[in-house]
Structure prediction request, 155 residues.
Amino acid sequence: MKLATALTERADLQRRLSELETRLNNNAKIQEGEQPAEDPTSLLAELDGIVLRLEELIAAINLTNSTTMSDGRTLTELLAHRDCVKQRLQIMRSFLDNASRKIDRYSRTEIRIESTVSVSDLQKDVDRISKELREVDEKIQELNWTTELKESETA
Prediction:
């Protein structure tokens, strides 16, 4: 199984767990003399099966990520780098938006508001970081589709 397939299955299992939680909660109590819409016992059994499979998948994904290398870095390191670059980019875009926003003056007596940074230089940095994020994300996606999932020893 390719890593990308395992990631898709993990997302599906997490969605199913969320739905199952709602279904369980909807069938936790009933009015006396009524029957639940779904049998809580079978829902709990389904929960156990999904959690077990999810645990196996997460372990295998983490093992694969920590042992898959690209350009001297593990996939785990690439994922951490991507997450941090993404967060930095988001903060810088917000700062750039504030720094470039014009403040209208209605008369010459009003205080003039100026940017504290060079907006054009900051935009170049944002563009450079955006490109870095795209390249790292492309490398991660490539690895996801070309890397075989490593089975954990407990599976």
In short: The two ends are 14 Å apart (CA to CA). The mean pLDDT is 94.
